[in-house]
Amino acid sequence: MFSPIINNQSQRTNITSPRSSGYRIRLALLLLLGGLGACKEGPHIGSAPRMGGQLEQLVRVLLENDVTACTVKVGASFEVGIETASAGGEGRKKHFEDIDGAIEIALSGGIITIGNEAFEGDEISIKPDRVDVFGLGGSDYRGTLRLVVNENGNSFDVINHVAIESYLSGVVGAEMPNYWEPEALKAQAIAARTYCLYIKQRFGSKRKWDVGRTQAHQVYRGVDAESAQVRIAVNQTKGKVLVCKQANGDEGIFPCYYSSACGGHTENSNHVFGDSFAPLVGAPCPYCVEVARPKYYFWPSAGFDNKEVSEKLLKNYPKLKRLGQITDITAIEQTDYGTYRRLTRIKLSGSTGKSDTLRAEDLRLTVDPSGRILRSTICEISKSGGKWVFCFGRGFGHGVGMCQCGAQGMARQGSSAEQILEYYYPGSRITGAR
Fold first, then answer.
1. Residue 1: CA atoms inside 13 Å, Cβ hemisphere, count?
2. Number of folded domains in the chain?
3. ∠173-160-189 over CA atoms, to 5°?
4. I need a labelling partner for 247 at 20 to 30 A (CA). Which of 72, 96, 311, 337 fits?
5. Using the 8-state DSSP alphabet, how is residue 171 labeled?
């Protein structure tokens, strides 16, 4: 799936915008109630969001995939559990104590070595004893760690099993600046929870993980993204998700896409991702222009080498190889918003005389996988010398669902989280987790 989000706070935030006195009063109360000064202890921040009395649903987050080694910091003591398919499930356990510093993990010959201990199994769990936090790649995460050996036996995936509300604290603070309006943070929490559960429900049964940690799904930075404001937003919306009427007439959750700044109007999901849900038809957005930084709301021209563009397209889409070298890129479908248009489908012509089509969003993220240069499909495409030029750009991200800068703009004007979500996902309603 292509990215539903562009996730760089500095790219979405107008840090010089004045905040109201009401906001400062609310923030002061949050600091008093949330104990912000006590959030950080050693390398970790605060405690996990309150879980309540019931067992909380777990989310499996892919942190690293197809690796042969990694370094993990677990704490002074932890337990390793081994599962093997041939044994029909759980195998032996090994307890580690008096560990000082990081632990090196490596795979060789189908055997995983943790420290100086060798483990043979299809799936290995690592569970800290006294705290539910471990470190990986310079970041801290709550929950437990799973090492899943891939079918070829030559690499493994690193997966974080974490309670969903703790997971969301690591998402909301990565997807929005934590000093944004509380109602915007709450709207983000509900949208992110719904999106996570939808992806888990649709794809989780077919693989060992539910969601990734990058913008390919939604950015998850674990403990590093937590703060008092974020935890309050997550706790105050605990279990809440958005539902809408499905094709079969029943109500159910749907993919609550969201992006940084829509540029003035959100887009119909069918034009971008090919799926059709009633709340994802698009809505005018006069709010994000007041929040997004001007250089990201109106982005500069971006040029890409002809040959490089052709190579990327043929690599990502083998069906296009019959076209030969890409010689022409033409917009054939676009949504007209009056003073600007969002490209939705592109025609590609090749040196063999053949042609094919591609969604404009797929073209954008193939040409620029980061999404930070070619920031949206609200643009015009032209050819200049040896380059394809994308100019008159507007907005940041795919534009489907909630506009994050727009949500902040609405919250500044006094809208509640419920009103924000109703606006960007028309026809949906908030209910308890499914």
1. 22
2. 2
3. 30
4. 337
5. H
Tokens encoding 353: 């005389």
Element (H, E) at 384: strand 380-384
80 by DSSP, 3-state: which? strand
Q: Strands 144-149, 156-163: parallel, antiparallel or unpaired by DSSP? A: antiparallel
Q: Which of 164, 185, 202 is the last residue of a domain?
A: 164
By C-alpha distance, which of 183, 191, 163 is closest to 229?
183
Would you say 134 and 89 are in contact if contact means Cβ atoms under 8 Å apart? no
Give the domain range for residue 346.
Answer: 299-391
How does pLDDT run across 38-71, given as a tens digit for each residue?
A: 222 233 334 444 433 345 799 999 999 999 999 9
Q: Is 401 within a domain?
A: no
Residue type, 368: D
* Whole-number Å distance between alpha carbons of 229 and 211: 24
Give domain status of residue 265, yes or no: no
Asked if 18 and 273 touch (Cβ cutoff 8 Å), the reply is no
Reported as a single tens digit per residue, the pLDDT across 125-139 is 998 887 789 999 999
Confidence of residue 210 (pLDDT cuts 50, 70, 90): very high
- Which of 132, 164, 196 lies at the terminal end of a domain, its last residue? 164
The DSSP result for 243-265, as a single string, is EEE-TTS-EEE----EESB-SSB
Q: What is the pLDDT of residues 244-290, one digit of tens each?
A: 999 899 999 999 999 999 999 999 999 999 999 999 999 999 999 99
Tell me the average pLDDT of the chain.
86
Residues 239, 232: Cα–Cα separation, whole Å:
13
Q: Please give the angle made by the CA atoms of 341, 343 and 345, to the nearest 5 degrees.
A: 150
pLDDT digit string, tens, across residues 159-202? 999 999 999 999 999 999 999 999 999 999 999 999 999 999 99
Which amino acid would we find at residue 80? V
* CA distance linking residue 413 with residue 195, whole number of Å: 26
- Asked if residue 82 belongs to a domain, the reply is yes
Core vs surface per residue 315-327: b (16+ CB within 10 A) or e: eebeebeebeebb
